[in-house]
């Protein structure tokens, strides 16, 4: 618990402003919602529809890999969230304080993992915007009082590392590319059946 004191707590208190401004609360909740697994996965739909099928599959893979890695680390490390450890954390009432461990932030790891894949594939079109949105999603978690700054920093680094690893694997692994082709073919067949029905 010693790491929770000092600069991490000071920075947390500077950024945890939930309930201070209703417009910022809505923005914070909106950004957090974008970082949820199911909402973030919806990014694959427009990519797939525009013919970027491999990128769509890799976005979903990035979400899955970061989700699994984050959950394993969280329960191995077991550090409490600020809203669990401090008595006077500002929270948005309908968001509340989750009861699972904090470190690293799943929202940050997922957002930065997806942003890394998008920035690698579409550097001019989506790169900077995807990374900026990922940073805002990460900040929203501290603003809402559910993560320490160190949680989102570590989650961001984890997401970037896993996104970069996934990009390397997608280019070099015959096994990965074959599995991705099969998954895309299956989705194409299912789509054809739905359209034909």
Task: Provide a descriptive summary of the structure in words.
The protein is an all-alpha fold and 197 residues long. It has one domain. It has 10 helices and no strands. It has helices at residues 7-15, 22-34, 37-41, 44-49, 53-77, 82-85, 106-121, 123-143, 149-172, 174-196. Helix 7 (106-121) runs antiparallel to helix 8. The longest helix is centred in the N-terminal third of the chain and has 25 residues, at 53-77. The model has no long low-confidence stretch (mean pLDDT 85).
Instruction: Give unreliable regions as ranges.
Output: none
Shape designation: elongated
Structural class: mainly alpha
Radius of gyration: 18 Å
Beta content: under 5%
Rounded to the nearest angstrom, the distance between the terminal CA atoms is 58 Å
User: Total number of helical segments?
Assistant: 10
Number of strands: 0
Helix content estimate:
over 70%
The overall number of domains is 1
User: Largest beta sheet, briefly?
Assistant: none
H and E string: HHHHHHHHHH
- Rounded mean pLDDT score: 85
């Amino acid at each position: 618990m010693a790491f929770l004191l000092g600069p991490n707590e000071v920075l947390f208190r500077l950024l945890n402003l939930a309930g201070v401004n209703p417009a910022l609360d809505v923005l914070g909740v909106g950004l957090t919602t974008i970082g949820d697994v199911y909402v973030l996965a919806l990014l694959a739909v427009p990519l797939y529809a525009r013919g970027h099928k491999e990128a769509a599959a890799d976005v979903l893979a990035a979400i899955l890999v970061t989700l699994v890695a984050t959950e394993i680390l969280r329960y191995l490390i077991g550090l409490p969230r600020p809203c669990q450890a401090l008595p006077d954390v500002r929270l948005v009432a309908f968001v509340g304080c989750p009861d699972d461990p904090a470190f690293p932030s799943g929202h940050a790891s997922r957002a930065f993992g997806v942003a890394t894949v998008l920035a690698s594939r579409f550097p001019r079109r989506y790169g900077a915007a995807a990374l900026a949105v990922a940073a805002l999603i990460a900040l929203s978690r501290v603003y809402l009082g559910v993560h320490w700054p160190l949680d989102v920093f570590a989650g961001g680094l984890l997401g970037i590392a896993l996104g970069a690893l996934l990009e390397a694997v997608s280019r070099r692994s015959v096994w990965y590319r074959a599995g991705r082709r099969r998954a895309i073919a299956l989705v194409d067949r299912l789509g054809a059946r739905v359209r034909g029905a």
